[in-house]
Backbone:
């Protein structure tokens, strides 16, 4: 059966804005995050403490975080290494995420490391974060396909997931970075993870909508018992270090489906849509979300 409630992990301000050509002013980002919280989202990924040359769009993390830290929402942030964690701790960040890859090519492109070197990079980060009482999420990118390597063998994905859990990550997020997954593929990976002893309650899904499969994939994951779903308001998103990655599953599309299924999210769809329309005006292009378009043209 399907869950009674889904926890939406909103990634628009991070995954979405990291991929914008134009750098969005810090005040606009803060207003956006505030509107997302007002719409009822309680887990809003705010920014990344990565190298500012690698992702200039998020180089204002130090200025942004204090502008939103009063909100009644969890505000997790990405940290690739100890330097990133230091920066996050200095601001009082309480939830962090490390981000691994299921493939060598993306580990190299995104972290300038081999896959195993990147896991070694994360070990002291996760240990220290846990010692400080932080909640740690472990992303795994390219779970269903890689732009350089093509199909990704599922045992390779399971190995990285298991390594992150053994390291101490409280939760995983399975990334379909380039949006190539289909529901059968999702079911198969979740089945293998369950077999490997990875609890489905501690596993989120992170679908990009490149091929229009993100909602169908989410439904397959919900049927398997997944209750944490990543999505980005208005369908913002992509990844600057992955060719052919487009926006994430739009939060509005997700909420529309979940409402129809009678699944609780705590999100006010009208307010959320208004936030995305507002952001689209700042970015000077319409939201790709079908639900946003339908609801805003009524
Ligand atoms: P590197 O060049 O190998 O860095 O980059 P390094 O460790 O050799 O350090 C070089 C210099 O950078 C040093 O300075 C460090 O202090 C500095 P120097 O001594 O030369 O003056 N430095 C930093 N400065 C500020 N903050 C830091 C930091 N770290 C080092 N944290 C690194 C390695 C990991 C830093 C780099 O590759 C990087 O920042 N990568 C981030 C890429 C990224 O953010 N990608 C997008 C997020 S992942 C994603 O979107 C996928 C996801 O959505 C899931 C999915 O869809 O699949 C999560
Ligand atoms: Mg992503």
Residues:
């Amino acid at each position: 059966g399907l869950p009674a409630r889904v926890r939406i992990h909103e990634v628009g301000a991070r995954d979405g804005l990291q991929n914008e050509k134009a750098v969005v002013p810090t005040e606009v980002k803060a207003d956006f995050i505030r509107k997302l919280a007002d719409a009822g989202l309680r887990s809003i990924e705010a920014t990344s403490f990565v190298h500012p040359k690698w992702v200039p769009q998020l180089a204002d993390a130090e200025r942004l975080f204090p502008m939103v830290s009063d909100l009644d929402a969890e505000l997790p942030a990405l940290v690739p290494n100890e330097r990133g964690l230091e920066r996050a701790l200095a601001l009082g960040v309480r939830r962090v995420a490390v981000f691994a890859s299921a493939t060598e090519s993306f580990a190299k492109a995104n972290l300038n490391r081999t896959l195993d070197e990147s896991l070694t990079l994360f070990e002291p980060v996760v240990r220290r974060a846990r010692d400080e009482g932080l909640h740690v999420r472990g992303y795994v990118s390219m779970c269903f396909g890689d732009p350089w390597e093509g199909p990704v063998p599922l045992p390779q994905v399971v190995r990285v997931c298991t390594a992150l859990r053994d390291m101490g990550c409280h939760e995983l997020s399975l990334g379909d970075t380039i949006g190539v997954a289909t529901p059968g593929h999702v079911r198969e990976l979740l089945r293998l993870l369950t077999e490997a002893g990875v609890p489905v309650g501690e596993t989120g899904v992170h679908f990009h909508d490149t091929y229009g499969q993100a909602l169908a994939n989410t439904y397959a994951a919900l049927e398997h018992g997944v209750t944490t779903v990543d999505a980005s308001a208005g369908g913002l998103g992509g990844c600057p270090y992955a060719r052919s990655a487009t926006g994430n599953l739009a939060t509005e599309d997700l909420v529309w489906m979940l409402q129809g299924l009678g699944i609780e999210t705590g999100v006010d769809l009208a307010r959320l849509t208004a936030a995305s329309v507002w952001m689209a005006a700042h970015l000077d292009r319409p939201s790709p979300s079908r639900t946003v378009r339908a609801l805003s043209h009524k």
Notes: The CA atoms of residues 76 and 93 lie 7 Å apart. The two ends are 34 Å apart (CA to CA).
